[in-house]
Amino acid sequence: QVQLVESGGGLVQAGGSLRLSCAASGSIFSKNAMGWYRQAPGKQRELVAVIARGGSTSYVDSVKGRFTISRDNAKNTVYLQMNSLKPADTAVYYCNIAPMAQLNYWGQGTQVTVSS
Question: How far apart are CA 85 and CA 2, in angstroms?
Fold first, then answer.
């Protein structure tokens, strides 16, 4: 059974930084690209960052230059370093395989709140 557990969210002022972690069970990491998704209140969930099995990365335009996704396959963990945070980054952040998330992989997410 695959489980994804996100952590590291919190309340931060605009311009601040947070580092999110996602620990996975099972063999998910060895077989898939991984992504960080976010869902703001009243909005659809969006994919913001992807890291391939080989380590190549891609980002949605709104976070380019500010967010960095990385992975540690030995620890089955994917990270999202978020710098220069903006109020618009406020959302619940989730990890899942990418670019097509698996419905039954969603975890509880971690709340990120950026105050102005």
Answer: 30
